[in-house]
Amino acid sequence: MVFSTYVRRFFETQSTILLPLAAGSAITVALATNLSQNGFIATETSIHKSSLEAHVESYSRENQEQRPRLIFLGTGSSTGCPKPICIMKMHQDNNKATTENGPSDALCNVSLQAIKGDPKNNKNYRNNPSLLIQHYDSKSENYKNIVIDVGKTFRETALRWFPKYGISSLDAIILTHHHMDAAGGLDDVRGFQSIKWVEDPPKNGEHNKSTGADPLSPTSRPVRAPLPLYLSDFCRLNLQSQFPWLLPRPEIVMPQQDQDRPYVERDVASFNVVEFQNYTEIKVQFEDANDADENGGFKVIPLPVWHGDDLISHGYAFTVQPNSSLHKPLNVLYISDISTMVPETLDFIQKQLPPTDVLIVDSLLPHKPHPVHFSLEQAVDLADRIQPRLQTYLIGMSCDAFLPHDEMNAYLYDRYGGKVTMAHDGLVIDLPAKSEQEIKRETLHETAEKQDVLLRVASL
């Protein structure tokens, strides 16, 4: 069957598939166009607002609405997509693989699709794997944004998707491992942290708690609120070598400063580093939360997996809880970098965790095995073992190893019946809605409980 037939069949059957609305889809683009045509987007001549405000207002209210959900910030491999070599080929007049339409080399097929138009509307444009979890924190009564992995492309992807989805804070980071596609953006995190200005640098270990300092004062300095950073001990040891200015080694003694030599305190990202243990629940806490509150925080379980024969990376199991009686919790299993499943981890998933609703898993190549990443076949095999109730999403795809996004998903739908699909940057997963029958059943149960309480009180 030709792939055009796959594509046609895929879209003909979309009415029967329960999938999240993709960011940048035709519906979203049409909605944005309609808003613009009807004057809902502020212009310089109508309303005096900044270009940033106008930029944010151009997005739909549905996107901006804060709610418990998942947002794929990045879904590509370490090198991302498009590949720079493919773009350079376009400008090599003497390249034999170049025609008047650009490179004819099949290895650049998806890259040439990925450079077309706005990346927000191009599902073939992929950055390093990164997932944002939007969680409603009952203690602070605010939405908190937890990000798994901040790789080399994190700043770019955040600037692209945070405004679109109304993300106004970065509240915690969880790392899978220390490689640059997972942690290369740590230094950029300072640009996401709020600053308080204090007078005079600390002396003799004392800290100035004043927050009313003048930013222009020569004696004032910026202080950033530490951001929770959760990682393994091995990951921390490696990051201390990679980013010594962010995570200094405590055992290193700095040389004695000369009296005539000034003390320099650099402005860098600030982290509250928390190491975790395998299979032990992490309670992600936030700056405005009470550590003693059992209802606050966000619970995550780290799951060790092999990322090559010489490195343990971590996947994560977590549940996104609803903030509405109309929705169900979503049990998620996220494994972005895996070459071999640790048997104890699979046993833990199958016996200790609640049933998985959504599996998000590494898939670098379609068929060929790779020493440090799953292939499509291995990802599907893991999905068969775990049996997610709703969907398996593939991430970490090598740029030009697969078909273009929509063609590949049409193929996957035909082969796996809609249970396996490629994710894309900007994709949103909302919590599943309860059926009318479930809502009625819960209402009847609550009514019966209330009547039972009233009868007990009346009998006293």
UniProtKB/TrEMBL annotation:
Annotated transmembrane regions: none
Domain Metallo-beta-lactamase: 144-222
Pfam families, per database record: Lactamase_B
Highest taxon in the source lineage: Eukaryota
InterPro entries xrefs: Metallo-B-lactamas
Biased composition (Basic and acidic residues): 198-209
CDD domains: metallo-hydrolase-like_MBL-fold (cd16279)
PROSITE patterns attached to this UniProt entry: PIPLC_X_DOMAIN
Region (Disordered) residue spans: 198-220
Listed name of the protein: Beta-lactamase-like protein
